[in-house]
Amino acid sequence: MSSRLINLIVVHCAATPNGRRTTVEDVNSWHYQRGFRRSPAFRARQNHSLDAIGYHFLVYINGAIATGRHLDEIGAHAAGFNQKSVGVCMAGTDSFTLAQWDALRGNVQLLMDRYPQARVVGHRDLPKVAKSCPGFNVADWLRGDMAPLAGHVLEASRP
Ligand SMILES: [Zn+2]
Fold first, then answer.
1. Rounded to the nearest whole angstrom, what is the distance from the C-alpha of residue 134 to the centroid of ligand 1?
2. How confident is residue 25, by pLDDT bands cut at 50, 70 and 90?
3. Domain that holds residue 42
4. What are the distances in angstroms from CA 103 to CA 8, 10, 32, 45, 159?
5. How remote is the CA of residue 123 from the centroid of ligand 1, in Å?
6. 133 C-alpha vs ligand 1 centroid, how far in Å?
7. What are 62-74's pLDDT values in tens digits?
8. Does pLDDT of 1 surpass 70?
9. How many independent structural domains does the chain possess?
10. Which residues make Cβ contacts (< 8 Å) with residue 23, sequence separation at least 6?
C-alpha cells in the first residue's frame, strides 16, 4: 500500500477548557456526534475502538501524544484540505502546558522529517475559516523555533 501524499500539517485546538484533561475517546465521541466516521479498513489498521475521530494526533495536557487516524488515512479536520494533510490537535483552547508545547514541537518535527515538502499552518490560516483555532499564531511559533509561545503557556504548568 503506497503512502498518502502530504503537503500540509494543520495544527488545531480542541476548544476545551485550558488545562482540562481531554482524551482521544472524548474527541472521538464529539466527532461521532458530528457525523464523522472512519472506514473499517483503517480502523482495523489502527485504533479500532475509535470509530470517528478526525485528527491524526491529540496532544494531551501531560505531554502525551495519542494517535487517532492512521497517517495514510484521510482525516476530517480541515474542510477542503483533508486529502493531503495531517491534523494535529492540542487539548485546550489558547493556553497550553509546557509539556504540551514540548510534545507539539517533537510531533511536528517528526512529521516535517517524514513529509519535508509539507507546510505547517494553523487551522485558522486556511481560507474561509472563521474560527480562531488553534488559538495561537503558528507562524510566530515556527519563527520562534517552536519554543512555547509567550502568552499561551498555562502558568500552572511552570516549574
Ligand atoms: Zn481546527
1. 6
2. very high
3. 8-157
4. 19, 15, 26, 24, 17
5. 5
6. 5
7. 999 999 999 999 9
8. no
9. 1
10. 58, 60, 66
